[in-house]
Design a protein that fits this description.
With about 475 residues, the chain is α/β, with parallel strands linked by helices. The chain is built from 15 helices and 19 strands. Strands 5-4-3-6-7 form a 5-stranded parallel beta sheet. Helix 3 (about 75-90) links the parallel strand 4 (about 55-60) and strand 5 (about 95-100). Helix 6 (about 180-190) runs parallel beside helix 8 (about 215-220), helix 12 (about 350-360) packs across helix 14 and helix 12 packs parallel to helix 15 (about 445-455). The model has no long low-confidence stretch (mean pLDDT about 95).
Length: about 475
């Protein structure tokens, strides 16, 4: 019987199926950070038990860490307490921690892949919704709640109901100036922020296969933004080459054995999905959001929708979103004044993202009234940027290269956007107050964000010199 990629992995990890209920699913890797783990550790300690398999847990500090002067004590009291608690819990439970000061520290969904911890065929969880990022490697990866974090710590298993299956196919070649963030924002604009609710989403097609691993991670990262339980892309030679030689990837005979298994992980030709979508890469232009959910996006040359052009059920939401954003129905988004540019987050903070921006802004200067924050996703990304001289390019352009962390993605740390200010962000969410109380967020690709940093307004990156070719 033909099976999908998801079904092959899911079935291999079922420990027990409960009649008319969920399955007990074995979890291969559990990532934890300082925000959603403390309560889970407290639960274990209150029960007098230890983490069942600490070697399968990877910890880092990312959400609440400062992105300047990380060698100094954390100023914000709650953030400091959370990070200190993570250190204490990991020490007591014998869990390896890539904390502040460690050369592998960084955003949890960046360090897993770059260290070789994330591998095809795995089940991966973390107390963070964007765990879906790891699905780019052909794995089942999803976010869990704090009570579930405790469950995995105690048993290395999790009760889960099998989701429905969706495939989104994107075929063709991307146009110049169009990158992976534009692909996923385009899909969101077509199927909405709830279009994949209850589904595991496999991304396929020639346009997806042409992407680098870092670009694929951007796609899967935002599968949660369309309501998906997780996102997957079948592993291929691009995947295998990326993993090979990473610090914690398989070595020697273990590598060959793993590779043999990984090559079986794809959806069979006659596999059946509950729902399918097909899109053409040529139809996608640089995208940007105008509202307060990631599905409210348009091409940078398009105008903001009006209540006359959308479904009746969406009209009140449009009006409310535009009132918060201070934007007008039917107006052009291009030319909108912006105040901040944030390039970072688990969506777009990898070395390829920084290289793309550096190539685009080299020899240019930022607009005088725009503040630009570049936040690498990990210490390894930061070190590579310095090694390649990318930091110097940013400095000459007036951009600030900060230190690794989630930063202005979520308004949980010191890096917040002031109320009423507009920020073009390469992160994944534009909810009200997401980047700080009253902050106005427009989601875009690193290339579109860089173009806005130079001009001071929303700009089509294809209109400036040296726009990148599509693909990242």
């Amino acid at each position: 019987m033909a099976k999908t990629l998801f079904e092959k992995i899911w079935e291999k990890h079922i420990v027990k199926t409960i009649d008319d209920g969920p399955s007990v699913l074995y979890i291969d890797r559990h990532f934890i950070h300082e925000v959603t783990s403390p309560q889970a550790f407290t639960g274990l300690n209150n029960r007098g038990i230890k983490v069942f398999r600490p070697k399968q847990v990877v910890a880092t500090a990312d959400h609440n860490v400062p992105t300047l002067n990380q060698h100094l004590p954390i100023k914000e009291e709650l953030s400091r307490k959370q990070v200190e608690t993570l250190v204490k819990n990991c020490t007591e439970h014998n869990i390896e921690l890539f904390g502040l000061g460690h050369p592998f520290q960084g955003i949890v969904h960046v360090i897993g892949p770059e260290l070789g911890v994330t591998q095809p065929g795995m089940t991966i969880v973390c107390g963070d919704s964007h765990t879906s990022t790891h699905g780019a490697f052909g794995s089942i990866a999803f976010g869990i709640g704090t009570s579930e974090v405790e469950m995995v710590m105690a048993t290395q298993c999790l009760l889960q109901s099998k989701p429905k299956l969706m495939r989104i196919t994107v075929d063709g070649e991307l146009s110049k100036g169009v990158v992976s963030k534009d692909i996923v924002l385009y899909i969101l604009s077509k199927i909405t922020a709830s279009g994949a609710t209850g589904y595991a989403v496999e991304f396929a097609g020639s346009a997806i296969r042409s992407l680098s691993m870092e670009a694929r991670m951007t796609i899967c990262n935002m599968s949660i933004e369309m309501g998906g339980r997780c996102g997957l892309i079948a592993a291929d030679e691009t995947t295998f080459e990326y993993i090979k030689g990473k610090p914690l990837s398989p070595k020697g005979e273990h590598w060959e054995k793993s590779l043999t298994y990984w090559k079986t992980l794809y959806s069979d030709k006659d596999a059946v999905f509950d729902k399918e979508y097909h899109f053409k890469a040529e139809d996608i232009e640089p995208m940007i959001t105008y509202g307060t959910n990631p599905g409210m996006g348009i091409g940078v040359t398009e105008t903001i929708p009006t209540t006359e052009t959308i479904n009746e059920s969406d009209k009140s939401g449009l009006s409310k979103s535009l009132a918060y954003m201070g934007l007008q129905q039917g107006s052009a988004i291009k030319g909108q004044k912006i105040d901040y540019v944030f390039i970072g987050s688990c969506t777009n903070s990898r070395i390829e993202d920084l290289r793309l921006v550096a190539a685009f802004v080299k020899g240019k200067k930022k607009a005088d009234d725009v503040e630009v924050w570049i936040v690498p996703g990990s210490k390894q990304v930061e070190a590579q940027a310095v090694k390649e001289g990318i930091d110097k390019i940013f400095e000459e352009a007036g951009f600030m290269l900060r230190q690794p962390g989630c930063s202005a993605c979520l308004g949980m740390n010191e890096d917040k956007i002031p109320a009423g200010k507009y920020c073009i962000s390469t992160s994944n969410r534009n909810f009200e107050g997401r980047q700080g109380a009253g902050a106005r967020t427009l989601l875009a690709s690193p290339l579109t964000a860089a173009a806005a940093a130079i001009t001071g307004v929303v700009t089509d990156p294809r209109s400036l010199p040296n726009p990148s070719e599509g693909g990242l």
